[in-house]
């Protein structure tokens, strides 16, 4: 990577005084008196990362690549909009990608947290200095505003951060114009506000950055002042727009200061339309933007921990985690298709290039940590391990530290990586955090003194005050042996609890060479004794192959070897995938269709129904391959009867992909941003497991910009078959191209109406105008016209 601008100076006393001045406008100075959380609610805590040192491994490699990216990024470029909006001289140009759009500033918050995590683990002096400098600059920004405000967002289509602050001031006056991803013409400004708030809290708590808590409290006071004069109904209207974990940030501010004001604000920021059904244990997630919801539930979990006066908060968090991991997740532990939840148990129908947004897994792992701390349960860390190894480790390419937004589950899918200076998607931000925290969940301590081993990551544990010091050595997950060597042991009898993964049928554990310990109902082997230096614990976790079918199609299966999801290598990522998905044929258990190739485990070969040889190996490190995670499996009889139809459907899929010029999924955040969608007299809807746009008669319209190319083209408008007798006028670049009309008879399923679209080298501005009744459209596609 290239170098970046040198960090300009250290934090100064003047900067901290400026922060204190800003607090005078924000409701008083921070009360640094953290709460003591009731041990009945939080019975175990992670060992602080400063007591854990990673040894060489895939995890250490990922953390090193991530650290290089954190150092590469220029604080002054991330601060550009903050300085500009406060009327201060800018010190460096703004970055590209999302940082050059209305959502500008969210990356700074993620970067603060990621740097704080790195400092908390290794004490990194360079990142510690950069944190101090950045927080001092934010204090200057806050002082210049004079009311606690610290933001860098803008309005749609504008580059002036002053407009971003005006959004909040309009809200204060009760002028609220909200949709799922737009608030008063700003792209999710409270989501971005949350990232900065959370980053400051983490800089204080994890890295002891001077002044960070003061700036955070000033920031908290500003937004609290915005909603103080609003009714609960008005606050709920604001919360319609994606707002990240703003309730969690206020709960954490309460935990760090003991000021009950922040607890009250956190409770006001409960989005009832989503969280009340979850609290009532109703799965109404279909069609909802997944990562909008997960942080809200994390907020409920944190409220349970810091307050504990509403048992429904804990119950809601548990229910949500259960249904998402059981009914909405793919084999790698990730969830969502095009960022949205589908119907419960429907995975097979959602095999696409746009599955498994990385932010979702990042947040689900955060939620898992909360639930486990309330009641240690090995099954929770079985899930954590599944998502960490197979999604998070696939999400960053360790050779260059770049990140992936979606993790494709479609056959032939490939990963699309961020750039260093022109992406800054949400998944880049959460990725910087994910790969700074590999040391933070290996070891945990129970309130009863028990020491828990949850993740098998090569590391050194060195607890203070004469407590345990342990070397953890392993090639896991490549091999199945884990060895613990006690370097130091405390006096008296102590318990070490070792997770025995549920996927392992015959785990074995030895203490000093002798069998010891069995798994209990909570998934742990509990070893109690008077330990001494030199004691050894050896864990053997034999890894066998198994097949995991999708819940809605038992003939569509993924293969898992030990903790690792396998995938078929179907070619290099830089080459097109123009053949059928690898189908397997045979009678008997699906796992028997693969044969192991060499040693160690995790590499298998099979011959497809098409007669080709294919190799299945761990999915996570196939960084530059096209892969197939799920394989259709046929018995010999089924293939004889259905094989030709399968191959014909695959040919049709390949043809459709080749003909597709552009697609916009309506009602979904990033596709609408990318295609400059605008609409009036309508709404975003979630029906039939998908998002879409409803246009009302009497002025309802929608516009989108779509790519096109030379040659005959059609515009496809996708609708739900039960929405009969719809009619809308369709124009391209201001000229009518036809009428969107759906049949009068109702039917189930999604269908498309084709209209001719004039070819051209420039994008087309398509406009749809509702006529006699409401019109609901889910998708727009530009396609090359089919040849005869």
UniProtKB/TrEMBL annotation:
GO terms of biological process kind: carbohydrate metabolic process
GO molecular function terms noted in the UniProt entry: hydrolase activity
Segment forming the signal sequence: 1-32
UniProt domain Glycoside hydrolase GH146 substrate-binding: residue ranges: 657-783
Source organism superkingdom: Bacteria
UniProt keyword annotation of Nucleotide-binding present: no
Annotated ranges, domain Non-reducing end beta-L-arabinofuranosidase-like GH127 catalytic: 51-439
Pfam families: Beta-AFase-like_GH127_cat (PF07944), DUF6805 (PF20620), Glyco_hydro127M (PF20736)
UniProt KW Acetylation keyword: no
Keywords, sorted A to Z: Hydrolase, Signal
InterPro entries noted in UniProt: 6-hairpin_glycosidase_sf, Beta-AFase-like_GH127_cat, Beta-AFase-like_GH127_middle, GH146_SB_dom, TAT_signal
Domain Non-reducing end beta-L-arabinofuranosidase-like GH127 middle positions: 451-543
Protein name: Glycoside hydrolase family 127 protein
Biological source species: Caulobacter sp. 602-2
